[in-house]
Every structure is written in structure tokens, then in C-alpha cells.
Recover the amino acids of this structure.
């Protein structure tokens, strides 16, 4: 089974994510595999990890924050995980002491309106061709039920990332893992993704790193066929 774990921080990110964010790429996987895209509701990383605990022997595909959640789940429940694919997971990648990213700063008001979310999605993308009415309708619908983020969400991300890096330096992540990054991701350069890969690969030989060219922070939407090929091949190799 392939479990798709969306990114986005509830009540914080200027676009409302959810299972809908994966778009057309899901239909490509559904032709070959059993697929489920989850809608996480937890107000912190740990509670989102627990939401996944009902699944057994799944290949987790996590975008951004979903990548950190998937990796954290693999650390806690390695017996339930076949492999992990972390996609443009800036949330899991080392950040260093760089200047704060301003890509999504000062979104148009009102927050989570159709126009505001379209603005955010355009800024995250290499090309806006994938931003259609269906995506915006789904994002607006998600905004109506979007939970407000817990005050400690940021601290939980830092704690989860610290645990991940410590584990990778020690016994290592115990399942095969790959990192996929967009060549023009405005939230994190390819080098940032490469450093995440290096951390994950320290003790795990079954690891891969891929760059999808001419894509931004949502590479699975901009190049769904190429994304499908990479993930499907890894799924079959680790099954």
C-alpha cells in the first residue's frame, strides 16, 4: 500500500493542504497499486504520527511536513513501514542559520480565500499550469474545516527534527528512504534537499536522491508522470 501524507501546517500555511493537494498523480498510482491519501487532523507532529499507526507495512510518501511526519513514524514504528519517500520536505531538512524565507510572507487578505491561496500556490510553483479551478475549490473547501494550529506546532517540528537527526547519526533510519526535490523549490534549494539525503543515508544504504527539473515545491503536481515513475520504481524495489 502507498500512503500519501500531505504537507502544510493547519491554520498557518497560506494554502490549505490535504489529500486533494496530490492531484492527478494519485490516479497514476491507482492504476497499479493500492493507494490512500490521508487528511491529517492532529495539532502537532506527534499526534499526526499516531494518526498513521493504524496502517501496516505501507510505503509512506510525505510532502514537506508530511515528510517529517512519515520519517518520524518510521523511527517509532519501523515494523509498520516498507519505505519512506520524502518530497520537498523543507520541514525535515536542516535549516542552519540562514535568512528567514520570505516566499510566503504577507499573503493577500482575507487569509485562505480563493485569491489568497492562488497567490500562495503560484509562488510555490515553477509554472502555474497545474493550478486549476478544481485545486482552488478543494483548497477553499479545506479552509472551512481547517483546524487552527496548536501553539507548540513549531516547537514540535524542531523536536521531531532533532530526534530524526540523532537517530540517523546513531542506529540510522531502519527502512529504505528516498528524497525527491524540485529543481526550483522556492522554500528550499536543492542543496538543502541533498543535505537531508546525506543525513538519512548515513546508516541506510538503501537510499536515493532525485531532482525533478522545472518544478517548485509541489513537484508531484508539476511533473506527475516523472514523479510516478520514480516513486513506483522505489516502491517495487523495496516491496
Amino acid at each position: 500500500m502507498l500512503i500519501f501524507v500531505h504537507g502544510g501546517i493547519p491554520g498557518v500555511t497560506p494554502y490549505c493542504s490535504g489529500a486533494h493537494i496530490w492531484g492527478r498523480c494519485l490516479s497514476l498510482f491507482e492504476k497499479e497499486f493500492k493507494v490512500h491519501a490521508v487528511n491529517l487532523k492532529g495539532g502537532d507532529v506527534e499526534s499526526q504520527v499516531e494518526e498513521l499507526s493504524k496502517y501496516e507495512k505501507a510505503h509512506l510518501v510525505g510532502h514537506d511536513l508530511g515528510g517529517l511526519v512519515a520519517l518520524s513514524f518510521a523511527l517509532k514504528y519501523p515494523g509498520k513501514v516498507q519505505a519512506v519517500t520524502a518530497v520537498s520536505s523543507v520541514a525535515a531538512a536542516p535549516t542552519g542559520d540562514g535568512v528567514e524565507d520570505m516566499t510566503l510572507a504577507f499573503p493577500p487578505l482575507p487569509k485562505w480565500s480563493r485569491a489568497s491561496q492562488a497567490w500562495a500556490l503560484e509562488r510555490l510553483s515553477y509554472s502555474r499550469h497545474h493550478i486549476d479551478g478544481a485545486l482552488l475549490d478543494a483548497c477553499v473547501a479545506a479552509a472551512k474545516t481547517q483546524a487552527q494550529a496548536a501553539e507548540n506546532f513549531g516547537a514540535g517540528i524542531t523536536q521531531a527534527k532533532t530526534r530524526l537527526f540523532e537517530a540517523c547519526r546513531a542506529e540510522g533510519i531502519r527502512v529504505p528512504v528516498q528524497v525527491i526535490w524540485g529543481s526550483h523549490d522556492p522554500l528550499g534549494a536543492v542543496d538543502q534537499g541533498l543535505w537531508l539525503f546525506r543525513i538519512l543515508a548515513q546508516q541506510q544504504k538503501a537510499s536515493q536522491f532525485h531532482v525533478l527539473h522545472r518544478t517548485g515545491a509541489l513537484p508531484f503536481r508539476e511533473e506527475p508522470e516523472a514523479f510516478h515513475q520514480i516513486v513506483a520504481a522505489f516502491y517495487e524495489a523495496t516491496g
Summary: The mean pLDDT is 92.
